Amino acid sequence: MFKSKSFRFRWINAQCFEFQLNNSKTLLTDPCYSCKESFGKKCPPGFTTQDLEGCDYLFVNHSHGDHVANLQEVYDRFHPTVIAPSPICFELAKEHEFVLTDIYPVDYNQTYYFDGFILETFHGQHHRYDATYQNIAEKFKGKYPGSRDLNALGSIFNMNFILTTDQGFRVAFIGGNDDGMLQRMAGTKKPNIVLRNKMASSAVKEGVAEAFADWVNKADIQLLVPMHYETWLTEDPVFAKKVFSDMNNMLESSHAVARAACIERTKWYTVNITIEED
Ligand SMILES: [Fe+2]
Questions:
Q1: What is the homologous superfamily of the domain 2-275 according to CATH?
Q2: Which runs of consecutive H residues, i.e. helices, occur in the chain?
Q3: Ligand 1 centroid to 1 CA: how many Å?
Q4: What is the pLDDT of residues 231-258, one digit of tens each?
């Protein structure tokens, strides 16, 4: 067998992933793995900022409390470059103590060149959440941390991305709705692996496997790593397991190449390209 490493990564919680690239640079997304609000009960028990291995770059998909709860702690420990959609950057600066030049605003449909990866950015759209600017503080109170303004901005501005490593391996990160990503990922733009939020909010439990399998069939990718289903994992683990085993059965019977890889939270995994003798 011949094997070459693409990158190491782990899913920590919600949309928080830690990546270690081949040039040793590290990237963290949407840091939220512990908080005192009720969302804390869904986080991996005992995980803290001390358990992170590194963070040269920190990416914020959107600024709801369950995506930025541990942002200040990560910044204080690693002083990363904080990459976030332009419209939320000033509010992030006001709510956190960051050296302002460490904030790296990014816009939609752009390409950015970092040490170890190229970042392509795309418009993102949150799953429907019935909150107005007037009542969002009340709705999120006790549930998620964060200010009214940051949580309101999180419902409006979301950003998906495709990361291309130095060796050309492509990883898509999609939170919320598809929002045109199927078209953007078509043809030569296709990623090798997709990290994808559920198709709807955790409250929707009907037709989940079918909808997810349908999206993966249309995307015609190789591997899907589902994310942000910690509500199911903690409140209904039997359902969580069944959704993804049903989904893989559907993919197999429709002769799709893709499979859903349900990785365990906080455990490290390596993505390789291998050539094996049949
Ligand atoms: Fe959110």
A1: Ribonuclease Z/Hydroxyacylglutathione hydrolase-like (3.60.15.10)
A2: 65-68, 71-78, 86-95, 136-140, 148-156, 181-184, 208-219, 230-235, 237-253
A3: 42
A4: 999 999 999 999 999 999 999 999 999 9
